[in-house]
Amino acid sequence: MKKWFKSILACLTAVSLAACGSASTSASSSAEASSASNVKDGTYTASAEGFGGQDVTVTITVEGGKITNTVVDASTQSADYGQKAADTLAQEITDGQTWDIDVASGATMTRNGASEAAKDAMSQAGFDVDNLAKTSDASGEDETAECDVLVIGVGASGSVAALKAAESGAKVIGVEATDHIGGMGNAAQGMFAVGSVEQKDRYGEDGETTDEEYWYNHFQESNDDLGNAKLIRTFISEAKNTVSYMLNHGVGFFLSKTAQQIAHFDTEVVYHRWNNADPFTYIGNALDENGVDIRYNTTANSLTTDADGNVTGAVCTKADGGTLTITAKSTIVSTGSFANNPDLMKEVLGEEVYNNAMVMAGAELPGLEMMWNVGAAKGDLLTMNHGVVTMNADEKVSELTLNTPILWVNREGKRFMNEDLLKDTVHFSSAVVAQGGVAYTIVDQATVDRWTDMSQENTGTWIHYWDQHGIVDENGEPTIYHAPMDIDTWNAGFDALTAAGEGGVFDTIEEAAAFIGCDADDLQETIDNYNTYVENGYDEEFFKDKEDLVYSVKEGPYYVTKGHSGVLGALGGVNTNELLEVLRDDQSVIGNLYATGNNVSGISHGAYQDVEGVGLGFSLTSGRLAGAHAAENAGYTPSEDTTELTELGQKTMEEATARGMQGTTKHE
Ligand SMILES: Cc1cc2nc3c(=O)[nH]c(=O)nc-3n(C[C@H](O)[C@H](O)[C@H](O)COP(=O)(O)OP(=O)(O)OC[C@H]3O[C@@H](n4cnc5c(N)ncnc54)[C@H](O)[C@@H]3O)c2cc1C
Questions:
Q1: Ligand 1 residue neighbourhood (C-beta within 6 Å)
Q2: Residue 667: inside a domain, yes or no?
Q3: Residue 499 lies in domain
Q4: What are the residues facing 323 on neighbouring strands?
Q5: pLDDT in tens, 191-221
Q6: Ligand 1 atom at shortest distance from the alpha carbon of 273
Q7: Are residues 592 and 531 in the same domain?
Q8: Which of 28, 148, 183, 258 is the most interior residue, by most CB within 10 Å?
Q9: pTM of the model
Q10: Among 597, 471, 579, 595, which residue's Cα sits nearest to residue 185?
Q11: Residue 13 within a domain
């Protein structure tokens, strides 16, 4: 598995686990019940980072195996929100006997710090903290709330929508099913933009990097003109303002041809890569500063409407099982599409592919259905096919074997693509999706000898391209493993692949064919033909580049790796106009309803755009725009948009660029 893919998966796992934690409402809530025998009476103190990177300190007193008192020291936090929330947070910890606290005060980051610190203190006291997520007793009190702008789903797009609306003067409530903001944005690495301050700084005004017409045409052509032209045009011209908006909030991007994720054929530098340890910390701080009231562990289930069909708010379920009914002048649904809905995923992707692919999924949530139920037209639905990976196996060997344009076969033992396709992660993944989500690479012993000869420069493989572009991680290591690779690493990798059922070493073609599940004669014929193409320097079947016709497959043993299509998520659900207002089938607007991010159809059609950072770029941009339009709909004048950088923005850009040019991706 590629290291960038692995790291985003690690983030994603963290995201999913957190979501699972908040969803595990039937777990024991009682500190007493969890592990009283291990709990020692006493006073325990711990600190964790809250608002503005400043520590929040929590002290718990434990008597008779129970927390009898909690003090939250939030003196470092904002006077208006964090400090005011301290007593409520402390009470929640004592009352709930849990670190899994929620507070309806706008003090998101203070709450996060207090929660983390309480967990640490409880662990010191001997509590089994994993069992102390909040319990739903399904008997929580019903509540109502009112606001100007309601944002459902405070993920990548929702957090920016909430911020923009609040900065425009609106009173904003965010409803978030998990216990944190950022959603899938926590796993993403960067955003697409054209003509940003950073691009202009580096490349001047000319060229495709800053040419909106070039990119508009690229999007529309790859969509066969079935995309939402107005929305695409808006996205392409507005994304640059999003870059400045994020920089002005302290979120660092770096733009570097030598350090970008080379995931697509496009060579233009449109990918602005996150350059902060945790971008959503900065957005979270700004949400706090602007008094956005986020209701965590709360899931919206349905939208409410007036007699004319205009949306008037939403009905949600709180963590305690009670109902929260929110009335709002504008409602933005930012729930991140349908990747978490297995039925819909199987419908769109096909059951066979869904079962074989590496699909990113967490809890099942009803976001899109809410909008369809109030009359929204069902928009184009598709999946974000991206990369090909092994499951649960050593990533070093598979990064090499799955990312080099060697011989690939499908489950019939036949070639199915020009292997140069793997130079673009979207096209590559889609080609494997077309084979049912699974395909195999095969190399012989001579290739392995060459790849494990540490004295030899690896030549003739595209994998080398990654090196030439100096793509390194925060430790200066190449972002994916490649040849030459020492023989011990190679062998250990194949042991792991074998143990996981994801590959194997076979003495004969018959054995390799049995592993793949194909006919041995068919596989042999494929190999013979391929060897002829390598010999002649001409691939008459799929026209692979001559320079990648390098490794024939002759004497065994044979090394086979199984690859699965990666699917980063789902795209689409409802159609909007360029103001992000949700449309009915007849194109009329559903009053007061906006959608953002992956929920919106029309940016990609058929397949995810083969351009760096479109998912996140559109999410952040549509969030910013929907936040402004929703605030305006509620009677406010949106805060001004500009590409101009503030002093903070300029500093953030310079620091991010300096770090990026050194090859680092994170803060010290
Ligand atoms: C591993 C991985 C890597 C990626 N890398 C990149 C990248 O490098 N560049 C790029 O452009 N894109 C990338 N993407 C895609 C990008 O992350 C998404 O396009 C983007 O996060 C979508 O934003 P969103 O706001 O639509 O949804 P999300 O960010 O997923 O937010 C949705 C939020 O809504 C909440 N929610 C859902 N339903 C409800 C409900 N009913 N009530 C309350 N809350 C609800 C969820 O908990 C979540 O917090 C990646 C995705 C993955 C999975």
A1: 8-9, 12, 152-158, 175-178, 183-185, 187-191, 299-300, 334-336, 360, 365-367, 568-569, 597-599, 613-617, 619
A2: no
A3: 384-567
A4: 317
A5: 999 999 988 887 777 666 678 998 999 999 9
A6: 8
A7: no
A8: 183
A9: 0.81
A10: 597
A11: no
